[in-house]
Each structure stands twice: as C-alpha cells, then as structure tokens.
Design brief:
The protein has about 300 residues and is α/β, with parallel strands linked by helices. It has 2 domains: about 160 residues, Rossmann fold (3-Layer(aba) Sandwich); about 120 residues, Riboflavin kinase-like (Elongation Factor Tu (Ef-tu), domain 3). The chain contains 11 helices and 16 strands. The strands form 4 sheets. A 6-stranded parallel sheet has the order 1-4-3-2-5-8. The protein has a 6-stranded antiparallel barrel with strand order 11-12-15-14-13-16. The protein has a two-stranded antiparallel sheet with strand order 6-7. Helix 8 packs antiparallel against helix 9. The chain is elongated, with a radius of gyration of 22 Å. The two termini are about 35 Å apart.
Length: about 300
C-alpha cells in the first residue's frame, strides 16, 4: 500500500529512503526509466522509495496565463506512479510561501532533517529554491555535508530525441498522437465529468457526452477515435470524439464531445476516462448542418475501423 503525504512530515519508517523529485507529468518512458533504476537501488540497499511532486506544477504557478498544460491530472499521475514500486508519495502544495524557500534550506531542513534522504534522483535540468537558484551541481556540492548521494540518470532517448513532457505536449498540439502515445507507452487520456450541454449532437442524430478538459494540454483540435472507461466499470466502450471549439456553431470555449458506439444510458455527472487512439482529421467549419452530418458519418466509419 502506497502512503500518500501532503507535506514533508513523514513516518519514521519512511525516513532514510530513496527520494525522487520532479513533476512527473504524464509518467512517460523517461520517468519510468527513473523509477526502474530506483527499484534496483531499493533492492541493492534495502531502502524504501519516496516521490516528491508538486501541485500545481511550479511552471503553472508562476505563469497564471498557462491554462492548458497538464498531460495528466494529479489523480492520474498518482495512480500511475503507484505502479512502479514506490512506498510513499509526497504531493506538496506549491504556493507563494514554499516558492520562496532558499535552496540550502530545502536541502538542510527538508531533504536532510525531515526526510533523511539517502539517495536523491533528479533529472539534469532540475532546479529548485527561491528564483530557481539551486541546481543539480548545488545538490552535489552538499552531498557529504548532509549525507546523501545524488543520482542523475542519463536522458532517455527515442529516435535521438530526449523524452520529456514538453516533447509529448508538442506532439499532441501538432496532432502526432501516435508518437505521443509511443513516448507515454500507453494511450493519452483525459478524465472529466460529463456535463449537460446544448444538446446539439442529439438534435442532429449523434448524442455526445460533453466534458470540460479544464487544465489538460490542448491537443490538436479535431476528431479522434477513442475508448471510454466509466468509473467502477472495467469495460471500455468504443467511440468518436471531437476536441475543439465547434466552429460551425461559433463556440469559443474548448470542449471534448464524445459519441459512444452501441451505448444508451444517462452519463450526466459521471466520471469518464477518454483514451485517444487515433487522430482522424482536424476541426473545420461546415456551411450547414447537413454538411456536418455527412462528414460525421464518414468520421464514424473511420473510427469504427480503428
């Protein structure tokens, strides 16, 4: 059972552990490599593994205009991390007070005194402390004084590209869904609550579940083949989704609309996990409803073959 903490006041049996620090947005192949390396240290030194992540992500905290950025919600992230042999996860609220913590105080008061960290796993571009003053070099300079060892794995490469959350965001924004899913090693997904909309889909013969994507990264607006999982129901339902602004109806707010195949029932206020399987086409504005309806039928035919 993985223990979840909201601060650095951890139990005694979790002190003196291997500590991994990062945002871990998406928990992609690069992150997974880090977790697997930590597992080898866990086995060799008989230590527990702890993860420190922050919510909101520091980049989103400092840039309030950065709305659509996350690859995964905080709950998705925690659920994924739990699969990699960790013993506890600290999700620290990133606020104004914490952001002003001096880098030396983060090392002294948190990593050393509160956590008693033995190994600290970080990426090469890791920065911490007030105004990002601390870096990996500074962590290493303080190893002997505070009795820990910094582990800095080499970047994980695919097609000579460094695997990163930024690379995945870029792929999704450009419509390279297959490549993004490859780097994630799973299907990218959005979890959200079904909201009541204007019933436009129902009126034209294709009822949809409307989902607010909140602060998820905005993948390329368009039509996607998807699979949908209902909470407390292990079976996926195949479907088709439109992610975008619905230009035919002059909508300004981004929305995820999902039409499910061979399904009838009320899903309002239910949580759905929407897995994106294939990018079918980009979003476009149609002259009229009949033209839209004709295109949807073509899209459905493609999506059902995926």
């Amino acid at each position: 059972m993985v223990k979840l903490y909201k601060n650095f006041d951890i139990k005694k049996n979790h002190k003196g552990s291997i500590i991994l620090i990062g945002n871990f947005d998406g928990v992609h192949l690069g992150h997974q490599k880090l977790f697997k390396l930590a597992q080898s240290y866990k086995k060799k030194y008989n230590l527990k593994i702890g993860v420190i992540n922050f919510d909101p992500m520091p980049k989103m905290f400092f840039n309030k205009t950065l709305k659509n950025f996350r690859l995964s919600s905080i709950n998705q992230k925690l659920s994924l991390i739990k699969n990699f042999g960790v013993d506890f996860i600290i999700t620290k609220k990133f606020d104004k007070i914490f952001s002003r913590t001096k880098s030396i105080n983060f090392i002294k008061n948190i990593l050393s005194q509160k956590l008693e960290a033995k190994f600290i796993f970080v990426s090469s571009n890791f920065r911490f402390g007030n105004k990002r003053e601390g870096d990996v070099k500074f962590l290493i300079q303080n190893e002997k004084k505070y009795d820990y060892k910094v582990i800095q794995p080499k970047p994980f490469l695919i097609d000579r590209k460094i695997v990163s959350s930024s690379l995945i965001r870029n792929c999704l924004e450009k419509g390279y869904l297959d490549y993004a899913n490859k780097i994630l090693s799973r299907k990218w997904s959005i979890i959200g609550i079904v909201q009541k909309g204007r019933q436009i889909g129902k009126k034209i013969g294709f009822p949809t579940c409307n989902i607010d994507i909140k602060d998820y990264v905005l993948a390329k607006p368009g039509v996607y083949a998807v699979k949908v999982l209902r909470k407390k129901n292990p079976e996926f339902i195949k479907g088709i989704a439109n992610l975008g602004y619905r230009p035919t109806f002059n909508q300004k707010k981004i929305l995820l609309e999902v039409h499910l195949f061979n399904f009838s029932g009320n899903l309002y206020n239910k949580y759905l996990t929407v897995e994106f399987l294939k990018f079918i086409r980009k979003e476009k504005k149609f002259k009229n409803i009949n033209e839209l309806r004709s295109q949807i039928k073509k899209d459905l035919s493609i999506a059902k073959k995926v």
